[in-house]
Design goal:
253 residues, alpha/beta, 7-stranded parallel beta sheet, two-stranded antiparallel ribbon, globular
C-alpha cells in the first residue's frame, strides 16, 4: 500500500510550472506550495478547489522564504522565525482548503528546508513547532519527511504522525539521503528507470543507491515531482505499474 504525492501549485502570477489538473487525476495527496517558494493566493485557492473536487488530500508544502531560488537555496533562519513562517504558510493554505470543503491534512517541507531537517535538529524542531502551532494542541497534523530524519523524530516526539517518504526520480546516497541536486545523476530522467524504482520502493521497500549498493527505503508515501517535464504522463505510468504489481495506491492514514 502506497500514497502518491506530488508538488502542485508551483507557479506565480502568470508563470505556471506544474500541470495541476492532470496530476490531480493520478495522485492521492497534493503538496500545495504556500507562497514562500512558489504559489500565490489565487493558485492556492484553485488547486485546493481541484483537489477537493477529486477527493485528493491537501498538504501544505512549506519552505524557506525564497521565491527567487525556488526554495532550493541554503538559508539560515532563526528557529523562532522559522516556526512562525511554517505556521503562517499552513494557516494560509488552510483558509483555501476549508473554503473548498476540505482542510490541510499534512505538512511537507520543500527543497532546502526538507534536506536541512534531515540532519539539523534545531531546524527540524522549528518546523515541527510551526506545524504544532497551526494544528493546535489536540489535532494530529502528519509530517512527511525522509526515513530516519530528525524531522520525523521531532514530529513523533511532538505527537504528530511521522510519514516516511521516498522519491522515485532522485538518486540516493548509501546513507539513505538524497544526492544533492548539484551533483551529476542526482535527478533521474529515464521514465523506465523511474517506474522501475517506484515499484521496487513500494513493493520491496528498497532501492539501488548511487554506488550500486541496495538500501532500505521504508516509505509510506512516494513523491512524483510536479516540475519534471512530462510529469503527468510519468505519474500515470507509475500508478499503472504499481497497481499491476499488486500495490494498492491510497492516501496514508
Amino acid at each position: 500500500m502506497i500514497d502518491l504525492n506530488a508538488d502542485l501549485g508551483e507557479g506565480f502570477g502568470r508563470w505556471t510550472l506544474t500541470d495541476d489538473e492532470a496530476l490531480l487525476s493520478v495522485v492521492t495527496s497534493a503538496n500545495v506550495a504556500c507562497g514562500f517558494h512558489a504559489g500565490d493566493p489565487s493558485i492556492m485557492r484553485r488547486v485546493c478547489e481541484l483537489a477537493a473536487q477529486r477527493g485528493v488530500r491537501i498538504g501544505a508544502q512549506v519552505s524557506y522564504r525564497d521565491l527567487a531560488g525556488f526554495g532550493r537555496r541554503a538559508m539560515d533562519v532563526p528557529a523562532d522565525e522559522l516556526a512562525d513562517e511554517v505556521a503562517y504558510q499552513v494557516g494560509a493554505l488552510e483558509v483555501f482548503a476549508r473554503a473548498a470543503g476540505s482542510r490541510v491534512s499534512y505538512v511537507k517541507p520543500h527543497g532546502a528546508l526538507y534536506n536541512r531537517t534531515v540532519h539539523d535538529a534545531g531546524q527540524a524542531a522549528a518546523v515541527v513547532a510551526g506545524v504544532r502551532t497551526a494544528a493546535g494542541p489536540d489535532r494530529d497534523l502528519p509530517v512527511l519527511g525522509l526515513p530516519g530524519s530528525l524531522l520525523l523524530a521531532a514530529a513523533e516526539t511532538a505527537g504528530l504522525t511521522p510519514v516516511p517518504e521516498a522519491f522515485a526520480d532522485r538518486a540516493y546516497t548509501p546513507a539513505g539521503t538524497l544526492v544533492p541536486r548539484g551533483e551529476p545523476g542526482a535527478v533521474l530522467h529515464d521514465p523506465d528507470a523511474v517506474v522501475a524504482r517506484a515499484v521496487a520502493m513500494a513493493a520491496d521497500g528498497a532501492v539501488e543507491a548511487a554506488d550500486g549498493s541496495r538500501i532500505a527505503v521504508p516509505a509510506r508515501s512516494l513523491c512524483l515531482h510536479g516540475d519534471t517535464p512530462g510529469a503527468a504522463g510519468l505519474a500515470r505510468r507509475v500508478r499503472q505499474a504499481l497497481e499491476a504489481a499488486g500495490v494498492r495506491v491510497e492516501a496514508f492514514t
